[in-house]
Write a structure and sequence with these properties.
The chain is mostly beta strands and about 270 residues long. About 0% of the residues lie in helices and about 45% in strands.
């Protein structure tokens, strides 16, 4: 079938990570040998910047003016204090290049209050030629200034069938049981499981689907009841996607900020 014209353009797969004092990436630096995406899915968490050891890998730029001279304004290179807010991805959802090695990966508070405090820290080995996704997750404790964090490998297939889309599921909901993602074709009405049951802090395997528009449903393992739903999601042939679940599994409101929702990110 013809894919819906509103399909987003393919996201680039590599951004370079060399940072100046502003924290904005230097795209003239040589490309490192591994790549990482970053997500702030910690419930009630403040905005954060992401670090590998003490190297800042994500930051938000803003405009800035030096009064009283209006001409002394800049449009890039000034770091904002907003950072990556809850429910958002760092670096606009693109991969950030990282030199392979052993790291302490962290999300650190970006706002002036408690600036630089790490709310989640994960030790991991980043291997050459591999892709990863790092999540701040769980429930942020304002007293201890701590949340959870975890990293998963993104084993993007090396050979892509140009007639099919590739989809996998990540469970970032700390108070959920193991969850299974299902995708129902808008064309045929047939529903397909996207891998098997996925526990918190885990990722399922990539599953191939015919390029189409899908309604997504998440169910607890062994249940037929939908507990998270997202409709009208396009999966284009030749593309690779990660669907991540975030939020509080106990909330049934359809408008609450902390309700369970599904995030759709393109890996390729």
């Amino acid at each position: 079938m013809t894919i819906h014209r509103s399909l987003a353009a393919l996201l680039g797969l590599a951004m370079l990570s060399a940072c100046g004092d502003s924290g904005i990436q230097d795209i003239t630096a040589p490309a490192p040998g591994a790549s990482v995406k970053f997500f702030n899915f910690g419930l009630n968490a403040p905005s954060v910047n992401f670090f590998a050891n003490d190297t800042k890998l994500t930051a938000t730029s803003s405009t800035s003016c030096t009064p009283p001279t209006p001409a002394a304004c800049t449009t890039t290179g000034i770091e904002a204090t907003t950072g990556v807010a809850y429910g958002s991805a760092g670096a606009s959802g693109l991969y950030v290049g990282v030199t392979p090695g052993q790291y302490s990966v962290s999300g650190r508070i970006a706002t002036p209050t408690d600036n630089g405090v790490a709310i989640a820290t994960t030790s991991t080995n980043i291997e050459s030629g591999k892709w990863y996704s790092y999540y701040v997750s769980g429930v942020y404790d304002a007293a201890t200034k701590k949340a959870d964090g975890f990293i998963v490998e993104d084993p993007i297939p090396t050979t892509i069938d140009p007639t099919r889309g590739y989809v996998r599921f990540v469970n970032a909901i700390s108070n959920s049981s193991a969850l299974t993602l299902f995708a129902k074709s808008a064309t045929t009405g047939v529903e397909y499981p996207v891998g098997g049951a996925v526990a918190y802090k885990s990722a399922g395997a990539f599953t191939t689907l015919i390029g189409d528009i899908y309604d997504l449903n998440v169910r607890a393992a062994g249940s037929t009841a939908n507990i998270i739903t997202r409709t009208g999601v396009p999966f284009a042939p030749g593309r690779v996607y990660t669907i991540s679940a975030r939020g509080d599994i106990t909330i049934t409101s359809t408008t609450a900020a902390n309700r369970p929702v599904l995030d759709n990110t393109s890996n390729r």
